[in-house]
Amino acid sequence: MSSTAQISGRDPSSGRRLEVTVTDGRIAAVRHGPATDGPYLSAGLVDLQVNGFGGLDVNAADLTVDQVHRLGRLMFAAGVTTWLPTLITADHERTAAGLRVIAQARSQDPLTRHSVPYVHLEGPHLSDQDGPRGVHDARFIRPPSLEEFDDWQAGAGDLIGMVTLSPHYPQAADYTRALVDRGVHVAIGHTHATPDQIRRVVDAGATLSTHLGNGAHAVLPRHPNYLWTQLAEDRLTAGFIADGHHLPADTLRVMLRAKGIGGSVLVSDAVALAGVAPGRYRTPVGGDVILDAEGRLTSVDTGFLAGAARGLLDDLGSAIRMADLTLAQVLQLGSTNPGRFVGRSGLREGEPADLIRFDHRPGEGLRLRQTWVGGELMFGRVEADR
């Protein structure tokens, strides 16, 4: 039996009334009315890099199916309707085990299957140098191996859809080409590669830069260096963390200008400590870390950042302030643009009804009211139509 509902709010681009008709979990029609006030309505956020949230970590050795399901519900409560569990550098079996659990979680729960299109592997083929390596465990950094990748895919039902690697390995271009041929997105990150090495993997099909400006040496040559090359390469879409800690405001603003809004995405890089109280913790991502009152998460041993402790919705508010962006622009960075890499195209007829309604006032962050996933209200309460 068919079901139809109407969800309305204010269009973030125009301020006009936006009415979305939902039939059987998909968008059946999108209509605009006169200018209005009240909460905004947009497509849900898409986060290409989530290690964990609210005390749950996809990199935990004892990860369970239930924890993956719970983590997805936390994502919905934070405005994210599509997210990529991100597994970092580990030994072969640890990665294989994490993939198996996430695959089982998808098979057992339609909402998880809907909101998790695939898994992002951040490593293990990264730089082994301090700085670019970040908090990835140096013991498990290793060159790309197609045999290892195929073993992971076979065990997880082709669940890997994105791989972040460093192009400095001699086999990086061939590996990239093989992954792209298998339908996998390849991103450049945690690297000390030369400009020529970067261009070779881009020629082979790499299309993304993972949290550009981070996972880098503390001090770089003025030029050339691996940041300039990725900024200049129009075939790469750059991911940025706009939490106020990973990139200073001036840096974020200039990098966005270099890539353009259309060539950029925002990611949270959230870890399990996102949304928890400040303190000292032991985590699978970074080991011993300190989360301060301002939300900065650092390794006790190195002082380097150990992931992020804020969600993507919070980062959108920060990006508005840091880079002088409009609400429509940050929603493009946090929803439309990353949606290109997961098969989501926003508020269009036929698309899944993954929607958020929220409040926003100039100078303030975004305050979530409701989240719908596949047309089902997953966060907030029913409100009278405006």
TrEMBL record:
Sorted UniProt keywords: Carbohydrate metabolism, Hydrolase, Metal-binding
Metal-binding recorded as keyword: yes
An annotated GO BP: N-acetylglucosamine catabolic process
Organism superkingdom: Bacteria
InterPro entries: GlcNAc_6-P_deAcase, Metal_Hydrolase
Active site (record annotation): D269
Gene3D superfamilies xrefs: Metal-dependent hydrolases
Residues that, per the record, bind Zn(2+): E122, H190, H211
Residues that, per the record, bind substrate: V135, N214, G215, R222, H246, L305, A306, G307
Cofactor(s) required for function per UniProt: a divalent metal cation
Cofactor note text: Binds 1 divalent metal cation per subunit.
GO MF assignments: metal ion binding; N-acetylglucosamine-6-phosphate deacetylase activity
Homology family: Belongs to the metallo-dependent hydrolases superfamily. NagA family.
The name this protein goes by in its record: N-acetylglucosamine-6-phosphate deacetylase
